[in-house]
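Researcher: Here's a chain I'd like modeled. Treat it as a single chain, no partners, no ligands.
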Amino acid sequence: MEEPIEYNEKKLDQEIQTIVQEACVDYHSNQPQKAISFSDFFTNKMMMISVIKEGVPYSLFKLIQQYSPFSENDWAGLLDISTKSLQRYKISAKSFKSSQSEKILEVAEVTNMGREVFGDMNKFKLWLNTPNFSLGNLKPFDLLSDSYGKEMVISELTRINYGILV
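Model: Modeled as a single isolated chain. Structure tokens:
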């Protein structure tokens, strides 16, 4: 049985707080970072870079995977690894490489914004899998495999959020 979304968000907030404290310190005073939520995490690019350099631990990935509308096969494709490799990360509980960590956080950022814009995971998932005129009639999901496509998807979500429909 799937956990309620609020519960997962609290777990995400707790996990990101722990990881930020381990990976980041305030760059001016070497003091631990103040409490930060999962959503707020995406507003601090330096913090994101620190976490990427340390590597996203499997524990955070698992919470992001549960929070997102993507299957294990989708994640394997986005990370350009096999589902068997994902299982090895799970068993070893090790952190992902920097390139994979960056992709995990990019997809998490899109998911976070999609949840904010659509307010409903099913509506967001439908939007991700529907060809979009503004994105060259491609499905937004198909653009998530690289950072340029991710930026296009984020830009489109921003336009939708502000009511600018093309």
